[in-house]
């Protein structure tokens, strides 16, 4: 129960496969497939970014970089300028503004070293041919270059106060030529630390990256307009950055594009931002819903939200949507990475909460607190170095910590939890893999596609895949619920019908029991009555003979004794009929079925009873087919008993001049033998049966109201007849009119 309270995703059973038949090998295949798919997607994104970039490398006669001719068409064209820049340290925006204003003798028609920005190189340290990518420490990485000009003693960065902020300042100078027909172009930035002042041909064009008081919706659209003069662009980008920043300056490729391309870039990046936000919100909602429905463990939801939100806010900070200073931006990036990896490790460990493996191993049980302590310590050290030593720890350190923790999570899952519930293991591995790939993408994010960082694309893809998987899972669950509901509905309907049938059978059984009880009481009453009559007679004759002693004559004595014998025989018949009826009801073995000729059986019975009627005026006749033996499957003795009873009743309940007719015939001669029937009727012109008595004449001991004219019989004859007929799967019907006579018809299945 403890495991169920913590997590239903986990399973205490350690075996080759879990309760659903999932194996560790299958989990590993899924994990490897996800890893390869991620690498392929990352490769596609990187390749697309590489093909999208167009870097001009043609040097004009003036020494400037020749921009592509497509820019003159005004279409969606752009040039990524990653190299060919001249870096000048220790020049502030004020110095650049003053120097350019004093340089009135520049010549844009001459070589590039006579353009307005050339005055900034006079007697100042500078470095030619620098690139703006692949540098983790920003412009500090330029210090290792041996190609510095006017810097024999090395480069030392000077502190400059800009708007009451202690800063380092430097300038990036670029010379470009383009088609003289171009009236304007756009300069775009994605990633740089600090604020930028952009000068074109000696004029200040724009200030980029200044802090906004609220959330900056135009972050990805940081751009300014460039106005070429006769196809010449003398570009100076001055960066002022907090002195504590460890990687100041331009960190991505500046892009010179047409206005249409700039609008397209702005639309694409804005749409990307909207997609990332929407996918993130949906992923958070879906995953939280699934986790809560699956485990009821609120901590799983909390740490998932923290880890996911930390990456999302890192993206917002890195993409300059959050309007903060460069140092605050660097601080937030470091903190968000550490928080995401700590929450991710805690989330991973919670997938296996309550399992035996976790409870037995001290490190697995307490490891999440150790990792949490390491992460909080790294944040503390980060701020301690910043406050007391004025040194900002590079983001590289936080990424290495995050990658190490993610790798440790995957190692723990594979080598410690491989015997646990495989679905939990797969979820944990995929969850950790997502963050591992994101950290790696951030670490290696050197190529920008449409000014969109590669890790944000991967993040959006992960969010989309997670939502697709969750929606698919939800749809499958709904389909399964519908199928189960349909099955349950059908089962309920079947059970309802079954219960209704049982209820009906119970009602019928109860009715039969009540009828049986009534019949039992009636039987006992009839038996006691029928037995009481002969017993009373026997007792009376015996008492008379006992009291009279020798006063009785021999004739009287013989008469009394004859009556006693007759009454005894009557009792014997009643008991025999009851025993026979009970025996036939309780055992199917009483019936021995064989092929019987109905014609021969009736002929023998008519001959026997005709001999008994020789001394009376009653007449018995038989009508059967001459050439049809009327063969049926029956028990000869039992079936003969049926016709004996019917003929005997016809003789007993008719007058002195009775006419009794026995007739037999076949129906359905032209059809298959299985549908042919044999009909036998016994008809008399006797006293008849009252209409109200006809439905009950086959009940035990039941006698019609007018049967008292004849004392013979036990009241069981027709009950025996009905039982024998039922055992033969045959039918018997009665037609009678009071005072006119009665007809009994028996219908048997023909054998051949």
Describe the structure in your own words.
The chain is an alpha+beta fold and about 750 residues long. The chain contains 15 helices and 22 strands. Strands 1, 2, 4, 5, 6, 7, 10, 11 and 13 form a 9-stranded mixed sheet that branches. The protein has a 5-stranded mixed sheet with strand order 17-19-20-22-21, covered by helices on one side. α6 (about 325-350) runs antiparallel to α8 (about 360-390). The longest helix is centred in the middle third of the chain and has 95 residues, at about 455-550.
Poorly predicted regions: 1-17, 446-450
Average pLDDT works out at: 78
Helix proportion? 40-55%
Distance N terminus to C terminus? 73 Å
- Overall structural class, as computed from helix and strand content, comes to alpha+beta
- The total count of helices amounts to 15
Strand percentage lies at 15-25%
Cα radius of gyration in angstroms: 56 Å
- Please report the total strand number as a whole number: 22
Report the major sheet.
9 strands, mixed
Q: In one word, what is the shape? A: rod-shaped
Tell me briefly what this model is.
With 752 residues, the chain is an alpha+beta fold. 50% of the residues lie in helices and 15% in strands.
Question: Which terms summarize this structure?
Answer:
nine-stranded mixed beta sheet; 752 residues; alpha+beta; 15% strand; five-stranded mixed beta sheet; rod-shaped
List the helices and strands and how they pair.
Elements: H1 2-6, H2 24-52, E1 58-59, E2 65-66, E3 78-80, E4 85-89, H3 93-102, E5 127-130, E6 160-162, E7 165-177, E8 185-188, E9 192-193, E10 195-200, E11 203-208, E12 223-226, E13 232-242, E14 249-250, E15 255-257, H4 259-295, H5 298-318, H6 326-350, H7 356-360, H8 362-389, H9 395-416, H10 422-443, H11 454-548, H12 554-586, E16 594-597, H13 598-612, E17 619-623, E18 631-634, H14 636-652, E19 659-667, E20 677-684, H15 717-727, E21 731-737, E22 741-749
Helix pairs in contact: 2-10, 4-5, 4-11, 5-6, 6-8, 6-9, 6-10, 8-9, 9-10, 10-11, 11-12, 12-15, 13-14, 14-15
């Amino acid at each position: 129960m403890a495991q169920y309270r913590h997590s239903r995703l986990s399973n205490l059973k350690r075996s080759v496969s879990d309760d659903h038949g999932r194996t560790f090998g299958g989990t590993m295949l899924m994990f490897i497939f996800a890893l390869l798919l991620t690498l392929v997607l990352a490769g596609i994104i990187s390749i697309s970014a590489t093909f999208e970039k167009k870097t001009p490398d043609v040097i004009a006669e003036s020494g400037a970089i020749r921009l592509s001719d497509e820019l003159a068409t005004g279409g969606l064209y752009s040039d990524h300028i990653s190299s060919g820049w001249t870096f000048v340290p220790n020049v502030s925006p004020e110095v650049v503004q003053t120097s350019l204003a004093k340089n009135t003798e520049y010549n844009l028609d001459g070589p590039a070293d006579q353009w307005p920005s050339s005055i900034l190189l006079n007697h100042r340290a500078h470095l030619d041919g620098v690139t703006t990518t692949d540098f983790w420490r920003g412009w500090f990485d330029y210090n290792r270059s041996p190609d510095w000009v006017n810097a024999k003693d090395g480069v030392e960065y000077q502190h400059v106060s800009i708007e009451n902020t202690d800063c380092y300042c430097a300038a990036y100078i670029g010379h470009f030529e383009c088609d003289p027909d171009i009236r304007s172009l756009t300069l775009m930035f994605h990633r740089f630390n600090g604020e930028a002042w952009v000068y074109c041909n000696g004029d200040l064009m724009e200030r980029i990256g200044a802090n906004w008081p609220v959330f900056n919706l135009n972050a990805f659209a940081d751009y300014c307009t460039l106005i070429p003069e006769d196809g010449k662009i003398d570009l100076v980008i001055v960066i002022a950055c907090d002195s504590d920043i460890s990687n100041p300056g331009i960190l991505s490729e500046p892009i010179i594009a047409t206005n249409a391309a700039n609008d397209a870039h702005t639309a694409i990046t804005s749409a990307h931002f909207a997609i990332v936000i929407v996918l993130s919100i949906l992923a958070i909602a879906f995953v939280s819903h699934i986790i809560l429905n699956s485990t009821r463990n609120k901590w799983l939801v909390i740490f998932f939200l923290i880890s996911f939100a930390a990456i999302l806010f890192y993206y917002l900070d890195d993409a300059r949507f959050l309007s903060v200073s460069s140092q605050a931006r660097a601080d937030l990036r470091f903190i968000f990475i550490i928080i995401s990896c700590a929450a991710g490790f805690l989330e991973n460990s919670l997938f296996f909460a309550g399992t035996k493996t976790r409870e037995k191993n001290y490190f697995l049980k307490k490891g999440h607190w150790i990792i949490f302590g390491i992460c909080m310590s790294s944040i503390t050290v980060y701020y301690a170095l910043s406050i007391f030593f004025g040194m900002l720890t590079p983001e590289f350190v936080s990424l290495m910590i995050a990658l190490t923790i993610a790798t440790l999570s995957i190692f723990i899952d594979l080598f410690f939890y491989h015997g646990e519930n495989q679905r939990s293991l797969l979820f944990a591995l995929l969850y950790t893999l997502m963050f591992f790939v994101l950290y790696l993408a951030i670490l290696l994010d050197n190529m920008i596609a449409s000014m969109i960082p590669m890790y944000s694309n991967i993040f959006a893809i992960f969010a989309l895949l997670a939502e697709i998987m969750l929606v698919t899972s939800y749809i499958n669950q709904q389909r399964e619920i519908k199928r189960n509901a349909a099955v349950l509905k059908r089962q309920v309907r079947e059970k309802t019908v079954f219960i209704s049938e049982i209820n009906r059978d119970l009602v019928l059984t109860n009715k039969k029991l009540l009828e049986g009880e009534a019949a039992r009481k009636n039987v006992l009453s009839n038996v006691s009555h029928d037995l009481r009559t002969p017993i009373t007679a026997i007792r009376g004759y015996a008492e008379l003979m006992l009291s009279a002693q020798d006063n009785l004559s021999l004739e009287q004595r013989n008469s009394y004794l004859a009556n006693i014998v007759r009454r005894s025989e009557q009792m014997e018949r009643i008991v025999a009929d009851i025993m026979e009826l009970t025996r036939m009801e309780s055992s199917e073995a009483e019936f021995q079925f064989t092929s019987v000729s109905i014609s021969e059986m009736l002929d023998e019975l008519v001959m026997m009873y005709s001999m008994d009627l020789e001394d009376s005026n009653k007449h018995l006749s038989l009508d059967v087919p001459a050439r049809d033996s009327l063969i049926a499957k029956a028990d000869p003795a039992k079936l003969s008993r049926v016709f004996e009873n019917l003929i005997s009743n016809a003789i007993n309940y008719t007058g002195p001049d009775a006419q009794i007719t026995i007739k037999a015939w076949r129906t359905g001669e032209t059809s298959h033998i299985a549908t042919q029937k044999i009909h036998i009727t016994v008809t008399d012109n006797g006293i008849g049966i009252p209409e109200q008595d006809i439905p009950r004449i086959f009940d035990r001991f039941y006698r019609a109201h007018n049967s008292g004219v004849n004392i013979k019989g036990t009241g069981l004859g027709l009950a025996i007849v009905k039982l024998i007929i039922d055992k033969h799967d045959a039918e018997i019907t009665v037609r009678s009119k009071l005072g006119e006579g009665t007809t009994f018809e028996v219908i048997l299945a023909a054998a051949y």
